[in-house]
Specification:
450 residues; mainly alpha; Hydantoin permease
Length: 450
């Protein structure tokens, strides 16, 4: 069954694909920006704790269920359910998951289009095409829809090629390129005046601020969003893993790669902000709050690049190229969630399913652009702050309470015959059963009721 659906051909291919899904704008744009808005090192500290204590166990729940079922989230949750009502709840959770994944991609494609536009604007500036550069960087419906459609076309093209020839092949190419580009930018920015001030903010925590409920909620959202949790993405990727793989090991490697890239991105963005301050660019309001945190990457950083002369144009070109790659490695996994469901539930061919669903998501993105002020922030809040943690909670419930413990152990033994004697088995089953759901619900209640 797994072979007919497609399967990752190697551990490296899976790690690159899963890490590519996890590593996106949430790591390189969202995480550093939220760190800057929430006390720098204090946010980093809480993020690291939550990523390892909540995001990794939730990731493992999705991977194990997916590998066991070798199916989309709807069928996978049905398969491990032990009664009719529970199967209905599982199927509903899976359906909501692919709807949320589609909605995330609908706003993600818009932001990714901006990245491509800014990348091309830097190229136009190098060629002294000032008019083109200005059009590419100005917020406008024509520019926004053009590059959103271009980004969706790239995503559709990769997904239509399938698991091995599409997802795995392109992830294995793009992820090393992303990492090399990121490290090169970090090393360059750290040589600039003002960078050390940003580094201090990033690395010296205010422990009192680390206990702020607002900061904890933001850090939880960042951890779930950056690891693509709660929408079935990792479940789908898990369903394409070979039965011989040791899941706790490969899941740990994916988590580690994701967290490392988010942390390294902080070494780029926070020092760059203080380089901007050194060069006279205002990034903080009178009360110390960050100006335009959500649009920091399109306001403060371009101003910084401008102060650097021709070198700034080159840095801008490389930076937005990096952001475009990061966006693409994530978008392909988001589109795969509804595509896998459609292929398996309705028997459509892959290319037809990809085109139909890609077109539908493009249409939703267009509606958001036509009502940008009302819908853009709303869709982001509904999907990332509310839906992802709740769906992550449901996956933990199914892995911890619904799925029979013996069957779960049998799944883990496929990649490690001695699984019951490992530290993972001694901790994870009760942890995902009790600790993860309680903490997720407690933080979610804080989100709702303050």
């Amino acid at each position: 069954m797994a072979a007919s659906r497609g399967e990752f051909s190697s551990r490296f291919g899976f790690i690159m694909a899963a890490a590519g899904s996890a590593v996106g704008l949430g790591n390189i744009w969202g995480f550093p920006t939220q760190a800057a808005s929430n006390g720098g090192a204090a946010f980093l500290l809480v993020y690291l704790v939550l990523a390892f204590s909540l995001a990794y166990p939730a990731l493992m729940a999705e991977l194990i269920i997916g590998r066991h079922a070798h199916a989309n989230a709807v069928n996978a949750l049905r398969l491990i359910s032990n009664s009719g009502p529970v199967r209905t709840i599982g199927a509903t959770t899976g359906v909501i998951g692919f709807i949320v994944a589609s909605l995330i991609l609908s706003f993600y494609a818009i932001v990714a289009g901006w990245m491509i536009a800014h990348f091309l604007a830097s190229g136009a500036e190098l060629l002294s095409l000032d008019g083109a550069s200005q059009w590419l960087t100005e917020f406008g419906f024509g520019r926004n829809i053009l590059f959103m459609v271009l980004f969706m076309a790239l995503t559709i093209g990769i997904i239509s090629e399938g698991v091995t020839a599409g997802i795995e092949r392109w992830s294995a190419r793009l992820m090393p390129l992303l990492l090399i580009t990121l490290l090169a930018l970090v090393l360059y920015v750290l040589t600039l005046d003002g960078a050390m001030d940003g580094l201090k903010v990033y690395l010296l925590p205010d422990f009192e601020r680390a206990l702020s409920p607002t900061l904890i909620i933001s850090a939880l959202g960042a951890a779930f969003f950056s690891l693509s949790l709660g929408v079935g993405t990792m479940l789908i990727y898990g369903s394409y893993i070979n039965d011989n793989e040791n899941l706790p090991v490969v899941g740990g490697l994916v988590t580690l790669v994701d967290i490392c890239i988010a942390v390294v991105a902080g070494f780029l963005v926070l020092p760059a902000m203080y380089v901007a301050v050194f060069n006279g660019v205002e990034i903080f309001a009178a009360d110390g709050a960050l100006i335009s945190g959500d649009t920091l990457i399109f306001t403060v950083l371009p101003e910084l690049f401008t102060t650097m002369g021709m070198a700034g144009v080159v840095v801008s070109l490389v930076f937005f190229f990096l952001m475009s790659i990061a966006a693409l490695t994530s978008s392909i996994s988001m589109l795969e969630v509804p595509v896998a469901y459609t292929i398996e539930e309705h028997g459509l061919g892959r290319k037809k399913a990809v085109l139909l669903i890609g077109a539908a998501i493009t249409l939703v993105s267009t509606v958001i652009l036509m009502n940008f002020g009302q819908l853009f922030g709303l869709v982001i809040s509904i999907t990332t702050q509310y839906s992802q943690p709740l769906l992550g909670f449901m996956f933990c419930i199914f892995a911890g309470w619904v799925w029979h413990r013996d069957n779960l152990l049998q799944e883990l033994r496929k990649g490690n015959p001695d699984a019951e004697n490992t530290l993972f088995w001694k901790i994870w089953p009760w942890y995902v059963r009790v600790v993860c759901p309680v903490i997720i619900l407690a933080i979610f209640a804080q989100t709702l009721f303050g």
